[in-house]
């Protein structure tokens, strides 16, 4: 059986698409293609055949890339097409209508809300229109997979074949921590205001304790970088703050081995963040790192139930600073929180559980193909 993943905007080596879903399916299926934006076709070291089309020039440049994707997908002639955005799924629907292909819609973002953000004051109107469009294509899916209960319930209103496949991390084996005398606090990910970078720095200024702070990742834009660096230069001269830039996955793991606690301080202005289970939370837990997390219901319920960190109001630097100082003053509790988080990922918050569910879906669709 030939499988083809479709993505209009994600990176070829996207964590969920490539390292989780594709490599899980590769254990059982040999013939797998990925059609994605890129410069040239190639075969990965895992034997995945990558077919590329030119990236879109801006967020509204959508028609030409989709025509290119359809033409490549038609040539690939797969049995199942697995699409990761509404516009790539529109291509899958076209393949189903014309050639009878089986199709899966993988909705791992709040796409209507995200796309409507481009329309400013017309956000609510745009969101409503995109919801209508999403429903008009999603009803054609042979299966819909998605990442949380909010999205599961939304899609179940008009498609009976919906499965929860969360974005939990792939277990990488137990990490042996090496704590230094000075506690190391880490943030790993994109650096932007809506992910809490400025509030975190304001909290560091208020903290009464000595610690090292590592920020791993790229700034979203030059404006944010300038604001952050100005704040650090003017307010944190006495603090041990380091920005590493973007580094490789293995290097991130090395930093996490030394991490005392990690920040997941998404800001409430973004509805999508409030109603999410960020992968960063589980990556910290998997590395035995205590977390300081936003007090949003979905995130807080996990942190509190697993006793793996502290939840705070992410817009209040004073609350964040108090959490930093609490963890520094209570070393044994912080270490225990890290161990609790690791145990929870081994027991339930890991990709291996989802891998089994994904395979069941493919086996079911494969059985329908044989029986038809």
Automatic annotation (TrEMBL):
SUPFAM superfamilies: UDP-Glycosyltransferase/glycogen phosphorylase. It is an enzyme of class 2 (transferase). Transmembrane segments: none annotated. Residues 31-159 form the Glycosyltransferase subfamily 4-like N-terminal domain. InterPro entries: Glyco_trans_1, Glyco_trans_4-like_N, Glycosyltransferase_grp1. It holds the Pfam family Glycos_transf_1. Keywords: Glycosyltransferase, Transferase. Its EC number is 2.4.1.301. Residues 176-343 form the Glycosyl transferase family domain. GO terms for molecular function: glycosyltransferase activity. PANTHER family: SULFOQUINOVOSYL TRANSFERASE SQD2. This is Alpha-D-kanosaminyltransferase. The lineage of its organism: Bacteria, Bacillati, Bacillota, Clostridia, Eubacteriales.
């Amino acid at each position: 059986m030939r499988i083809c993943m479709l993505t209009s905007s994600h990176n070829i080596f996207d964590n969920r698409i490539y390292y989780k879903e594709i490599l899980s399916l590769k254990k059982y299926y040999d013939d797998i293609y990925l059609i994605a934006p890129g410069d040239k076709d190639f075969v990965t070291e895992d034997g995945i055949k990558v077919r590329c089309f030119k990236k879109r020039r801006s967020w509204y440049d959508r028609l030409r890339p989709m025509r290119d994707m359809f033409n490549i997908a038609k040539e690939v002639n797969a049995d199942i097409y697995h699409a990761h955005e509404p516009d790539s799924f529109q291509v899958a629907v076209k393949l189903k209508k014309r050639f009878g292909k089986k199709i899966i819609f993988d909705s791992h973002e709040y796409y209507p809300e995200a796309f409507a953000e481009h329309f400013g004051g017309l956000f609510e109107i745009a969101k409503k229109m995109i919801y209508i469009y999403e429903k008009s294509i999603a009803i054609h899916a042979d299966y819909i997979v998605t990442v949380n209960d909010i999205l599961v319930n939304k899609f179940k209103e008009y498609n009976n074949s919906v499965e929860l496949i969360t974005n939990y991390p792939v277990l990488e084996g137990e990490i042996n921590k090496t704590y230094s005398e000075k506690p190391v606090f880490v943030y790993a990910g994109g650096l932007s205001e809506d992910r809490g970078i400025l509030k975190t720095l304001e909290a560091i200024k208020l903290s009464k304790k000595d610690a090292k702070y590592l920020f791993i990742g790229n700034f979203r834009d030059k404006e944010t970088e300038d604001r952050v660096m100005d704040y650090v230069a003017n307010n944190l001269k006495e603090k041990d703050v380091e920005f590493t830039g973007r580094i490789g996955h293995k290097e991130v793991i090395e930093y996490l081995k030394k991490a005392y606690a990690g920040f997941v301080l998404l800001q409430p202005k973004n509805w999508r963040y409030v109603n999410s289970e960020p992968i960063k939370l589980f990556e910290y837990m998997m590395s035995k790192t205590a977390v300081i997390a936003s007090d949003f219901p979905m995130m807080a319920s996990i942190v509190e139930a697993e006793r793996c960190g502290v939840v705070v109001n992410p817009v209040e630097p004073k609350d964040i600073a108090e959490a930093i100082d609490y963890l520094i003053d209570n070393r044994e509790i912080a270490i225990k929180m890290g161990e609790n988080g690791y145990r929870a990922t081994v027991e339930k918050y890991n990709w291996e559980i989802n891998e089994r569910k994904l395979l069941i879906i493919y086996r079911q669709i494969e059985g329908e193909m044989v029986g038809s």
